[in-house]
Specification:
single chain, mainly alpha, two-stranded antiparallel sheet, 5 helices, 62% helix
Length: 136
């Protein structure tokens, strides 16, 4: 039951990340694309304790952020450039809303910056989830 709860919370935080960033999301809005991308992301997050053990690091919030951000950025990069058709990541410009608000003006992120910030924002939200559920 704990596995299902953890999978569910990771999926919800991942979909929150996709909802926050306007140009990051599944290429088509089918349920299967959402499910595949979310479950693969959840597998990456669930493997973080084993990754930190492999590198002989303690599993705490700092290691969760460092290794999680690396794996999350790699996830978004692979799904943009290798697995075509799963995630659609485009440039983010000043005329679009970030976090649902238009608070920044005059900025533009290219695709690489969008991938990096998507990975960092998603792992920060996952870290907040882990902190609130007292798991890391």
């Amino acid at each position: 039951m704990y596995f299902v709860f953890r999978l569910w919370t990771i999926l919800l935080v991942f979909y929150l990340t996709l909802g926050i960033l306007p140009n990051v999301g599944p290429r088509n809005n089918g349920f299967d694309t959402f499910l595949i991308s979310g479950i693969l992301y959840a597998v990456i997050i669930m493997c973080l304790p084993y990754v930190t053990d492999f590198f002989k690091q303690n599993y705490n919030y700092v290691s969760f952020f460092i290794f999680g951000s690396i794996l999350s950025i790699a996830y978004f990069y692979l799904f943009k450039n290798v697995f075509f058709g799963i995630l659609d990541i485009n440039e983010l410009t000043a005329d679009q809303k970030l976090f649902g608000l238009t608070i920044l003006s005059g900025f533009s992120w290219n695709i690489t910056q969008t991938i990096v910030w998507s990975g960092i924002i998603s792992i920060v939200l996952q870290l907040l989830n882990e902190f609130l559920l007292d798991r890391a």
